[in-house]
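Anyone? Bumping this.
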Amino acid sequence: MNAPDTPVPAPMPHVLNTYGRLPLALSHGRGCWVWDTQGKRYLDGLGGIAVNTLGHAHPKLVPALQDQVAKLIHCSNYYEVPLQEQLGAKLCELSGLSGAFFCNSGLEANEAAIKIARKFGHDKGIEKPAIIVYEKAFHGRSIATLSATGNPKVQAGFGPLVEGFVRVPLNDLAAVEEVARSNPNVVAVFLEVIQGEGGINQSRNEYLQGLRALCDRQDWLLMLDEVQCGIGRTGKWFAHQWAGIRPDVMPLAKGLGSGVPIGAVVVGPKAVNVLGPGNHGTTFGGNPLAMRAGVETLRIMEEDGLLANAEAMGRVLLDALQTGLADQVASGGVVEFRGAGLMIGIELARPCGVLLGRAAEAGLMISVTADRVVRLLPPLVINADEARQIAAILVPLIQGFLAEAP
Ligand SMILES: *Cc1c(COP(=O)(O)O)cnc(C)c1O
């Protein structure tokens, strides 16, 4: 027995204790299924947090990556990387934008976006540029991106925060118009089209259209963080396309490489010439392996019709969840279903972090975010049978949880 003040040894003593991890380790996967080191099988409702677009060990992706590893993994940005041009051209074709900068993660893509916004401001004589950001937003854990994040838990202990952010609530155009009237230093509006970590909160189409018009009028950049909701997850390539608008700056990451680390910031005509040689850089960013993963992910998504699949399977999954949990909606235990396509949040009436471990025990991987929101982000290769199985495992877990005394 440990005395109360004796620290319990970490299960991985040589890895910093930055995550409350479940006591299981995964060894391999196939499609929407993964196996742990004990041989137990799990249905993947999480996709490595919206990363494993093509599921695990996709039969078209694996040989392409093997081919690239055997040719060239890394070469530095001192030289032309034709695969960067190839992926940049594809992202521009899909988004209607003009050019891309490649990096390695979501926070790096957002960091680049923030630098673009600031330089855009300085270029037009604004010495202290400010960026409008959002309550409940999540943009990453670097000092600048955690400052842009609207979650005190992410910021606690890391002050002083970076200045130059003005915070507003989501879907309130009047609040942004008020900032426009009172703050001449604003250069950009920066938001997730669907807030992920903040609990699957959607910006309304009319709101995005209103922001687009306001940004045009004010000569601001509209910067849409599609790190989690982009790359086909909602049934369109990018979630903002449902609103029929285009951003000026669009950070991407998570699903773009199907598991290979990658980030990108894609920009339109208003921002394409803001950065020049020497303004920004990264050693690993845009390396041939990551670029090949991006090129092949997008190609396979097109070949296999995964946008249509995400939309259709999202509906199957949501229908099964709504049907199974109808009584809990009626009794108030389930507050709301939110999301689009294969980005689904189920808000419960009370904190439910315990469901993560219970789901794993039952052979299902999920996440719980914003304390009370069960979040599903399965691979886009999921089929209807698997989508129904997710609901079949999850519904009784939620029912059982809600039946317990709080
Ligand atoms: C995950 C996430 C990030 C941060 O990405 P990392 O790769 O973890 O740095 C930024 N923005 C959004 C919307 C995200 O979901």
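Late reply, but here is one note on the structure posted above: DSSP finds 13 helices and 17 strands in the chain.
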